[in-house]
Amino acid sequence: MQDDRPTFTAQSIQTQFVILAVTWWIGYPLRIIGEFLPKAGELLLGLVCIPALIVATVFWCILLYRQWTLLQGHGARVTPGKAVGFGFIPFYCFYWWFVAYAGLATDTNNYLKTAGITSKRMSFGLAVTDCVISILACTIGLIPKVGAVFMVPLMIIGFILVLQQRDCVLAIMQQKLERLQPTSAGDVLKAAPEK
User: Is residue 154 situated within a structural domain?
Assistant: First the structure.
C-alpha cells in the first residue's frame, strides 16, 4: 500500500501562507501606486514592491506545487513540476495557467467530493477569471497606467483564489492524516511493527 502521508505539515502551509499574504499586500498596492508616480518615485517604490511580488510569487508556486502533489494518484491531470514549471514558459504560459489553476479547481473539487470532504471548494469561475486578468495584465497591462487597472482586480481575485487553495490543501491534508491514524486499540496493535 502506498503511503499517502503528505511530506509537509499544516504548520508549514500556514507559515508560508502568512509570508505570501504579507508580501502580496505590500507588493501589489505599492506597484499600483507606483504607476501614478513620477519616474523617480516609481523606481523607488520598485525597490520594495518588486522583491515583495517575487517572494509572493515564489510562495504561491510552492502552494500550487503542494496542492498538485496532494492530488497525485487521485485523478490529477498534471504533475506538480509541470503545473509550476510550464507556467514560466513565455507565451505558452497563457494557455498553461488555465490548466494549472482552472484545472486545479476542477481536480481539487472532484477529489474533495470523492473523499467526502465537506470543506469549501475552489471556484472554477474565479480561477478562470484570474487567468484571464493575468493574461491581460501581462500584455496590454504593460502600457503605462493601464497596468494599474488590471492590478486591482488581479490583487483581489488572486488573493481569494490563494485563500481557497490554502483551505483546500489543509482540508485534504487533514483527511489524509485522519485516514492514516489508527482508530482503536486493535488497530494500534495491527499498525505496530512486529519484533
Answer: yes
Domain count, the chain: 1
- Residue 78 domain-assigned? yes
In whole angstroms, give the CA distance from residue 103 to residue 190: 39
Amino acid at 30: L
pTM equals: 0.86
19-37: pLDDT as tens digits? 999 999 999 999 999 888 8
Give the H/E segment covering residue 39: helix 39-71
Burial 145-171 (b: 16+ CB within 10 A, else e): eebbbbbeebbebbbebbebbbebbeb
Dihedral (Cα; 173, 105, 93, 140), 10-degree rounding: -130
In a domain, 1, yes or no: no
DSSP assigned state of 98: I
Residue 4 lies in a domain: no
Residue range(s) defining the domain that contains residue 29:
10-178
Residues 39-74 as b/e (b if ≥16 CB within 10 A, e otherwise) read eeebeebeeebeebbebbbebbbbbbbbbbbbbeee
Number of residues assigned to the chain: 195
| Residues 173 and 6: beta-carbon distance below 8 Å | yes
